[in-house]
Amino acid sequence: MTNALPEDAGARLLGRVWRPGIGPAVVTVRDGDVIDMTSRDHPTVRDVTEAADPAAVVAAAEGEAIGSVADILSNADEATRDRDKPYPLAPIDLQAVKASGVTFVTSLLERVIEEQARGDPSRAAALREEIAGVIGTDLSKLTPGSEEAMELKGVLQARGVWSQYLEVGIGPDAEIFSKAQPMSAVGHGAFVGLHPVSRWNNPEPEVVVVVRSDGTIIGATLGNDVNLRDVEGRSALLLGKAKDNNASAALGPFIRLYDGSFGPADVAAADISLTIEGTDGFRLEGGSSMSQISRSPTALVGAMMGPHHQYPDGVVLYCGTMFAPIEDRDGPGEGFTHHDGDVVAIATPTLGALINRVTLSTTAPPWTFGVRALMSNLAERGLL
User: Fold this and answer.
1) Residue 79 neighbours by CB under 8 Å, 6+ apart
2) Per-residue pLDDT, 145
3) Quick check: 136 pLDDT over 80?
4) Closest residue by Cα to residue 196 from 225, 231, 224, 223
5) What percentage of residues in the chain have a pLDDT greater than 90?
6) Angle at CA 276, nearest 5°, toward 256 and 114?
7) SS (H, E, C) the chain
8) Is residue 118 pLDDT above 90, yes or no?
């Protein structure tokens, strides 16, 4: 799991590493080394991202080299890592973790199918053909909430095929939900967890934007918005059970901060690749292109926060995915679902690669290091 860095060697990176015997460290990467830049001024990632110019803070930060980035990333795999050596954590700490859904046409159609199938994957293929025949497959030219979108809504309602997913896909209001609690996200190399009740699930490769408390997007990273298709398909009111479980939110490997070499245009043009490799020899490749998103990251952030909702410690937002796997894995008509031990790699040249191994949320290491533990640790180290 060592090939995780952006192709641009000059990328301004911000992240976190666990240092055995010390605790979590705020880090950056310079000349192939990982630099611990934790200080009283910036004891948390939140303190860096809340700065007026986070990239400048990272560029000027002094600190200790704690190992080569190759060595630390090679110790990322939670199945084999040496806990007596440094390893990567999710690159955020106190920020809220939010997500947006149904922001791509392909995933919009699959959400409608999940809903109609009531969580039964065996019904998906027939429903896919039927629904596509009524709705069509090219809604990409529609602007959500526009007059044209509302006209289509009226037509679909008249035909009896309106859906809550179509409402947030082409209607005026974006779907924004809480993906995970602050401090609960897992990082590059960690296990990602599936609730054991699920029999139909998949990864969701996404760009995740990092947002300051004033609403400014200051950087981006990669995310796996682990999804339980059967649970959410039974009822959208089960979204919390489908989305927020132990180790179900992966982020990393680093935040790439906006600076003169990287910014919103690069995020808008990002093509996200996905590879799933199973212990059974199964391999699936897919992806997601930010150029196909129906609501821009700026629009999604505007829906998430403002006078109606504040995030004083900042927030990260999963921007949604167009990836919706339909390939059969276990039998004809059964579609794709994860197996224990699947390795999921999500990558794009500007942000690097996020790689995780699939297990159950009940067998992934439990989440024990929360906000209280972080504050105690920093106080003991004289950083607060």
Assistant:
1) 191, 357
2) 76
3) no
4) 231
5) 71
6) 95
7) CCCCCCCCCCCCEEEEEEECCCEEEEEEEECCEEEECCCCCCCCHHHHHCCCCHHHHHHHCCCEEEEEHHHHHHCCCCCCCCCCCCEEECCCCCCEEEEEECCCHHHHHHHHHHHHHCCCHHHHHHHHHHHHHHHCCCCCCCCCCCHHHHHHHHHHHHCCCCCHHHHHHHCCCCEEEEEECCCCCECCCCEEEECCCCCCEECCEEEEEEECCCCCEEEEEEEEECEEHHHHHHCHHHHHHHHCCCCCEEEEEEEEECECCECHHHHHCCEEEEEEECCCCCEEEEEEEHHHCCCCHHHHHHHHCECCECCCCCEEEECCCCCCCCCCCCCCCCCCCCCCCCEEEEEECCCEEEEEEEEECCCCCCCCCCHHHHHHHHHHCCCC
8) no
- Please give the pLDDT value at position 259: 97
Q: Is the peptide bond before 253 cis (omega within 30 degrees of 0)?
A: yes
Angle, in degrees to the nearest 10, between helices 105-117 and 124-135: 130
Which pLDDT score is estimated for 40? 97
pTM (2 decimals)?
A: 0.89
Dist CA 54 CA 364 (whole Å) = 33
Share of the chain above pLDDT 70, in %: 89
- Both structure tokens of 186: 């897992």
Q: Which long-range CB contacts under 8 A does 19-23 form with residues at least 24 apart?
A: 19/66, 19/86, 20/83, 20/84, 20/85, 20/86, 22/381, 23/377, 23/378, 23/381
Q: Distances in Å between the alpha carbon of 58 and those of 11, 90, 347?
A: 11, 17, 23
Q: What is the pLDDT of residue 324?
A: 72
What pLDDT digit, counting tens, does each position of 342-351 carry?
999 999 999 9
Give me the sign of the Cα torsion angle 229, 233, 239, 241. Answer: negative
